[in-house]
Amino acid sequence: MERNLCLIGKGNVGTQFLKLLQKKQEILKTKFGLNFRIIAIFEYDGALINNNGLDLAKIFDIGENFRKLEDWEKNVKALNYLSKLDIETCIETTPTNPDTGEPALSHIIEALNNGFDVVSSNKGPFYLKYRELHELAEKNKCYIKYDATVASCVPALAIKNDLIANEIIGIKSILNGTSNYILSRMTSEGVEFSLALKEAQELGYAEADPTLDIEGFDAAGKLVILVNELFDLSLTIKDVKIRGISDITPQAIKLAKSDGYVIKHLAIYKNNSLLVEPRLIEKNSSLDINGTLNVIEIQTKYAGPIILMGRGAGAKEAAAAILNDLINIQKLRGYIH
Fold it and tell me: Which residue of the set 123, 145, 222, 264 is catalytic?
């Protein structure tokens, strides 16, 4: 069965998705009888478009010069062209404005209004307009998936389907690898915050402007999506009390260590409140993880704490989550079993 797709955003995540899709093509055909074809790849200044399917090998071979390919159409915008495409699913991987959710929010709305299923790696639209997007998808009989938005390919959202007969009570988590790396370095080496941040930037773990990470907004957005999904709520990032890590000192970390604790930047949902802030936790507890790892401790009524841990960021990890969502949509559609 052939399924036609478009990709909006050929950045790191989008490119890794294309590479993973090409790598898994034979397995997808053999195991599921699926043949995914990329019909269009939209960038900010145009698009690669071929109604018979783009040649991914050619695109990879030419690299950053993909605009020189014969399939390139200059100044084509996704918002204006989506309705002309013969596709079933739209993949959205553009960078997002955290205050507005754009341009991803408009792309997703346009795709749903055209009856396309959507898979997205963008947090902004979902911590700002979670309920509205779900209602629009339901109205247009579409599926919308976004597992890559929280802890990347760690199945933080998908686990909901395995806890239907259980009861989730609360969540404690570390959802931002940058902050966790900084605090880990400060704990292990006793270095100042500014030095740990500079190191994180040099290693590519932190952006040139690290505000969203170190001040807790990235973790807060992920917490909102996680809580909305697992508890069937419609909260936004405005419902989260947020405090960052920029005021944490080596002295505070040293004092915590002397009492058998470490300081971690936690994202917590308990008693109907959402909180992102530095907290003291016992050393060697399930939340005492180092480096850029993410961890999610889901408190349940019948199983106690369920721990999910893994690499919660990265282009390859996000690509794996996107492909997983894409396959799951085919299952929901009844195309595979």
Answer: 222
Alpha carbon of 193 to those of 186, 199, 213, 249: distances in Å?
7, 10, 13, 7
Q: DSSP labels for 50-68?
A: -TT---HHHHHHHGGGGGG
Q: Mark whether 23 is an active-site residue.
A: no
Q: Residues 262, 207: contact at Cβ < 8 Å?
A: no
- Domain chopping of the chain, boundaries: 2-152+316-332, 158-311
Using CA of residue 30, residue 31, residue 37, residue 42, what is the dihedral sign? Answer: negative
User: What is the mean pLDDT of the segment spanning 186-200?
Assistant: 95
Q: Which of 145, 134, 141 is nearest to 115 (CA)?
A: 141
Superfamily (CATH) of domain 2-152+316-332: NAD(P)-binding Rossmann-like Domain (3.40.50.720)
Res. 244: pLDDT tops 90: yes
**Alpha-carbon span 113 to 85, nearest angstrom:** 13
On the CB side of 53, how many CA atoms lie within 13 Å of its CA?
Answer: 11
Alpha helices in the chain (DSSP H): 12-32, 56-62, 78-81, 104-113, 124-128, 130-139, 177-189, 193-202, 211-214, 217-231, 250-258, 315-332
Rounded CA gap, 157 and 141, in Å? 21
User: 210 pLDDT band (50/70/90 cuts)?
Assistant: very high
- The kind and range of the H/E element at 47 are strand 46-49
Q: What is the CATH number of domain 158-311?
A: 3.30.360.10
**C-alpha span between 190 and 87 (Å, rounded):** 54
Whether this model's pTM surpasses 0.85: yes
